[in-house]
Amino acid sequence: MRLQLKLALIGAIAKIVIFLLLFTLVQQKIESLTLRQTDRDLIKKKDKALSIVKKIGIKTYLDAEKDSAFASYNMLKDEYIAINLDTDGQAGPLSFSQEARIIEDEEFDFRILHLDFEIDHQLYTLEIGKNIQMIDSLDRTLKNISISIILLVLIITILFDVGIYKYLLHPLNQRIIPKLRTVVNPETFQYTEIKSTTSDFIYLNNTINDLMRKVNEILGNQKKFIGDVSHELFTPISVMQSKLDNLLISDKLPAKTVALILDQQSQLMRLQHIIKALLLISRIENDQYAKTDSFGLPELIREIFNAIEERAQINHVTLNNRIPEGVVMQAANKYLIYTLLFNLVSNAIKYNKPGGSVDVDFERNGEGATLGICDTGCGIAAENLEIIFGRFRRVEGAQTEGQGLGLSIARSIAQFHEARIDVKSELGSGSCFFVRFPAKNF
Q1: Are 205 and 194 in contact (CB under 8 A)?
Q2: Domain boundaries 199-285, corresponding CATH code
Q3: Cα angle 303, 308, 314; round to 5
Q4: Are the C-beta atoms of residues 157 and 14 closer than 8 Å to each other?
Q5: I need a labelling partner for 420 at 20 to 30 A (CA). Which of 60, 149, 170, 218 fits?
């Protein structure tokens, strides 16, 4: 997950938590405010009722209301007012309660104001009630308004944060990360400086530049070391090879000595092949080859078949080139692709059965193209599929020649071309090696 998204997500989570806390506090506050406002309205109505009673007299009011104790209610029955004689003879302070009242055979919940007052030495009880449903409706309205405002503020702040994070992380997203993504060869790395008011990004960019300089220095030393070692190794080997050749010229050598000299020559030749293979892998991994060639793939396979035909005939193996004419490979190194396919075809012959075959197929797909090299040989056990590409690793029990570097070289060449090699094999039923190239190569 990208840093910008993480920051936005963390900010959103923090704001949601704050929103929930605010929502809980606002709910409680609104309920309290609504109740207090209702009580204030009831007190105002109490003052107005008492002024009317004082003006018209209590007897007039009671005569008007004698038919029903709760006759004074409005049409919607959301409020009522009643004055009754207090038969207890005990006056109490102003109080509020929530009680049910029956009006015209219907029961309603009211918030009720209670007040005892005295006129002409007679105690009366005043009740003014407000329907709870009306209070709840006001409470819900206020809560909905508050929730809408909080949600709107939450969304606005989240969008604002995303914009701020994008602005603050611009040097990282648009300068530093693209520079790292385009690193293919350390030698072509761009040591650019960035302009930013954030010192951390400047420090990160400078650190990356310093690191790449050290990598370049190390790779340069490594390449020099490989060149020096290869030269130093090839020189004594060539001298030894030349001396052994001179010894073989003599007619006086016993047959046993000749056999020993030939064996030493074979070992020197094997050592030369190993050094050349290791140098090739090193140069590939150090990106020392260009990828600018364009060539026909069927023609390249025919070149490989011509070069290896004698070995196939000796092993009684048939070679089949099934690549359609006109298939052109581009943005590649022809020499390396030749080496890759030669090694795969060579192995397909080497581990085949007498009378078997090697088929080279080609298929385009949405992601690029796949080159398949399939044989009818002994196959590879499932437990060996993970190790066959290792250096100096050979399938256990194989009786053929080789140093175990062919598939390692093939994998390095494939990776150099941003391709990959997959293997499908079953013991006793042959093997298929699939080289999957990206679309840019075809």
Answers
A1: yes
A2: 1.10.287
A3: 150
A4: no
A5: 218
Question: Tokens standing for 278?
Answer: 């290791």
- Greatest alpha-carbon span in the chain: 159
> H-type helices in 295-387, by residue range?
297-314, 334-350
Q: Which fold has domain 293-441?
A: Heat Shock Protein 90 (3.30.565)
Mean pLDDT rounded to a whole number for the chain: 82
379, 428 Cβ separation under 8 angstroms: yes
pLDDT category of residue 107 using cuts at 50, 70 and 90? confident
Higher pLDDT, 441 or 83: 441
Domain with CATH 1.10.287 in the chain: 199-285
Contact 373, 348 (CB under 8 A): yes
Q: Are 53 and 83 in contact (CB under 8 A)?
A: yes
Q: First-to-last CA distance in the chain? A: 33
The boundaries of every CATH 3.30.565.10 domain in the chain are 293-441
Residues 312 and 346: beta-carbon distance below 8 Å = no
Which strands, in side-by-side order, build the sheet including 95-103?
72-73, 79-85, 122-131, 106-119, 95-103
pLDDT tens digits along 151-193:
888 888 888 887 887 777 778 777 777 777 777 667 667 777 8
CB of 388 closer than 8 Å to CB of 407: yes
CB 404 within 8 A of CB 281: no
The answer to whether 65 and 72 are in contact (CB under 8 A) is yes
Scanning 118-198, the segments in alpha helix (DSSP H) are 132-168, 170-171, 177-181
Q: Which tokens hold the place of 274?
A: 């190993």
Q: Can you tell me the distance from the alpha carbon of 8 to that of 121, in angstroms, rounded to the nearest whole number?
A: 73
Three-class SS of residue 242? helix
